[in-house]
C-alpha cells in the first residue's frame, strides 16, 4: 500500500472525460459545468481539488493512467511517503 496525493487543477479542465473513464473511483462527471470532479476531494482554494488516500498497486495504476490520460495535464499525483512526483501536471493550479 502507498499513500498518494491527487491534486487537480479543475480551473483548466476542458471536460474531455478521459480521467472519468479510466479512473472512475476518483473522478466523476459534472454535467452542469462540463468538468470532472475529484470524488471526495477537498477544496483548499477555488479551482483546486485535492485528496490523499492509501492505495494498492492496482488502484495506483488506475490513478496514474487517469492522470496521464488528461489532455491538458491538470492532474498531479505524488507519493506522499517519498515525495516522488508520479505524474506531473503541465498546468499547475495558480
Ligand atoms: S481528463 Fe483532464 S480535461 Fe478531461 S475531464 Fe479529466 S481533468 Fe478534465
From TrEMBL:
Pfam families per the UniProt record, alphabetical: Fer4_15
Domain of life: Archaea
Protein name: Ferredoxin
Amino acid at each position: 500500500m502507498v499513500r498518494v496525493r491527487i491534486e487537480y487543477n479543475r480551473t483548466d479542465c476542458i471536460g474531455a472525460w478521459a480521467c472519468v473513464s479510466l479512473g472512475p473511483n476518483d473522478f466523476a462527471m459534472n454535467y452542469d459545468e462540463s468538468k470532472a470532479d475529484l470524488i471526495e476531494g477537498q477544496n483548499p482554494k477555488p479551482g483546486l481539488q485535492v485528496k490523499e488516500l492509501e492505495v494498492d498497486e492496482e488502484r495506483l495504476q488506475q490513478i496514474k493512467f487517469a492522470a496521464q490520460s488528461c489532455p491538458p495535464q491538470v492532474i498531479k499525483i505524488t507519493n506522499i511517503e517519498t515525495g516522488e512526483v508520479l505524474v506531473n501536471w503541465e498546468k499547475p493550479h495558480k
